Amino acid sequence: MFVQQNTIQALFIYVKAKLEGCFSEFEIRNIYKSLICKRLRWSDTDYLLNQEHRLSESDLLFVRSCINRLLKNEPFQYILGETEFFGLNFLCTPSALIPRPETEELVADVIKTMAHVESPKIADLCTGSGCIGVSLAKKISGAKIVLTDISEEAIQLAESNAKLNEVNVECLIEDLFSSSAFKGWEINSFDCWVSNPPYIPFTEKSEMEKNVLGYEPHIALFVEDANPIVFYQEIITHAKLYLKRNGWLFFEIHPNFSAEIVSYLKNHGFVNIELMKDLQGRIRMLKGQNA
Length: 291
Ligand SMILES: C[S@@+](CC[C@H](N)C(=O)[O-])C[C@H]1O[C@@H](n2cnc3c(N)ncnc32)[C@H](O)[C@@H]1O
Prior knowledge:
Blueprint: H1 8-19, H2 25-40, H3 44-49, H4 57-71, H5 76-80, E1 82-85, E2 88-91, H6 101-113, E3 121-125, H7 131-139, E4 144-149, H8 152-164, E5 170-173, E6 190-195, E7 200-201, H9 210-215, H10 218-221, E8 222-223, H11 230-242, E9 243-252, H12 258-267, E10 270-277, E11 283-290
Parallel strand pairs: 3-4, 3-6, 4-5, 6-9, 7-8
Antiparallel strand pairs: 1-2, 9-11, 10-11
């Protein structure tokens, strides 16, 4: 055994020694608690009340292997296989981006804006894990929600997340740029489209964290430097056709490209355009209404 005793407390001392220097003590405690609760199917209360519990050899090996993966920069959400988003549990696999806290702010604004629309029809384009669309389905009663993504694996994950959160959504594998995208969709029928598409130019790759670059899918992150707003242009052009008059379009955006996206929206007849800041005060979201 690589620890002298097999209690929860004794294993924590081992984990802390391994992770110190990479994580704060607060983070290490949370990581450890999450691993133990996941492995033993415990609640936080079980964890607090059972510090003298003795772990099996395979429990010890499980924790050690997770810690070794963490030390190789693998994101903790992929190791754990799940994360929390908008107060809901979401499965996480390397086939989709890990849901980010700033995206929760986008979801909150869509919910606020849709509050006065009865049974709104909403599309979440480039859905990845389904975090946006599934949260909207959970929080907006009667909403009719479609999720699309080019990646078959991402759509399978979004379907699993819809099931996990007990919501009904329609999931479609669609390449936004294909001539068959949106085929069969009813014109002027949507109350809202929302999207967090890929938006990081390849030139920014060198500034990115190892855990993102090494593990998250590049198809979810990067766009060609020549036109970093290409996804927004494609979505805006189609949104004009499929949104109802006064229907809303919501985007998560790269702060550097807000002016170009606003200008494209204006040129396509969108009104009431509003840029929104995240909790750190950076412009990260945008909405506009189909006139
Ligand atoms: C930034 S991720 C967003 C994931 C999720 N909406 C979120 O907020 O966490 C972008 C997503 O766009 C998808 N994507 C990339 N190219 C696409 C395309 N041509 N058509 C449709 N989806 C695409 C990727 O598979 C990825 O899931």
